[in-house]
Write a structure and sequence with these properties.
This protein has 285 residues and is an alpha/beta fold. The chain has 9 helices and 13 strands. The structure holds zinc ion (ZN).
Length: 285
């Protein structure tokens, strides 16, 4: 199944509801537009929910660049990536035996590291093929389906994480509102998405639909989306995934990369960081 075979439908801006967005480009047969009111960049028309379900059920994403890139790294590098993410989450939520929900848990890597530290972990995955690999790799049985099919009671979790998932979802606003309900007051949401303001993406010359990204967030639009869902945004900042470094060169490369990225952002308002990480909390219901 290819992207141009998916049934599609016109959608309003997911952030402000406006219609008649500005066309930007056609990339991998998908039309990418920018909302003239709030600036959100998204695919329009979008694949229907039924088409997305078929696409994921067929395991199409597993054969695409994102996953093959993931598996091209050594187990050591993959380990570094998830340990950095878990250490970051712990900086924002210091709790013993915290209850964690990982949305779109993929192969279960993050849940694996969190459970080793004694956290109570839950997760689900939209793709049955990916969830199967999680069982085989870590023995973690992920529920299969989307967020709205999961029977979690409100205020079940101290921490909710979402690593490179939100950009794939048809209705990010509805998902963030549901996550707000599931989080306990004082709980923390940590999510990461690709950074639209990264120089190589800003040119629109590279494929923007790798892994079927339906939304392309800047730090600003991501923040506004989380705020509109009820969260208090603590930080929304461009960073990197950690995949750029071999283990030996990691520390020096990371320092240099961050320094260049910050200098460039201050000088010309652009940056070279490939991801945005957002930290938010729930103050009240
Ligand atoms: Zn808008």
């Amino acid at each position: 199944m290819t992207l141009d075979q998916l049934a599609t439908t016109e959608v309003p801006c997911n952030l402000c509801g406006a219609r008649d967005p500005l066309p930007l480009c056609v990339n991998c047969s998908l039309h990418i537009v920018r909302c003239r009111v709030c600036g959100l960049v998204f695919v329009n028309p979008q694949p229907t929910l039924e088409a997305l379900r078929e696409y994921h059920a067929a395991g199409e994403l597993m054969s695409q660049d994102g996953w093959s890139s993931y598996f091209s790294h050594s187990q050591e590098q993959i380990c570094d990536l998830w340990q950095e993410r878990f250490a970051d989450v712990k900086r924002w939520k210091q709790a013993q035996n915290a209850s964690l929900l990982d949305v779109g848990a993929g192969y279960g890597d993050f849940l694996h590291y969190a459970s080793k530290e004694g956290w109570q972990v839950s997760g689900f995955e939209f793709s049955p093929a990916v969830a199967k690999l999680s069982r085989e790799k870590y023995g973690i049985a992920l529920a299969v389906g989307d967020l709205f099919e999961m029977p979690f009671p409100n205020q079940s979790f101290d921490v909710i994480t979402m690593w490179h998932v939100l950009e794939h979802l048809a209705d990010p606003t509805a998902v963030l509102k549901r996550l707000f309900e599931l989080l306990r007051p004082g709980g923390v949401l940590v999510l990461e998405v690709p950074n639209l303001d990264c120089l190589i993406r800003k040119s629109y010359r590279v494929p923007m639909t790798v892994n079927l990204h339906l939304y392309h967030f800047s730090s600003a639009t991501l923040s506004r989306l989380a705020s509109a869902a009820g969260f208090k945004v603590l930080r929304s900042r461009a960073g990197n995934t950690g995949f750029l470094y071999s283990r030996r060169a990691k520390v020096y490369a990371k320092r240099a990369f961050y320094a260049c990225s910050r200098a460039l952002e201050m000088a010309v308002g652009a940056n070279v960081s490939d991801s945005i990480r957002l930290h938010a909390t729930k103050v009240s219901n």
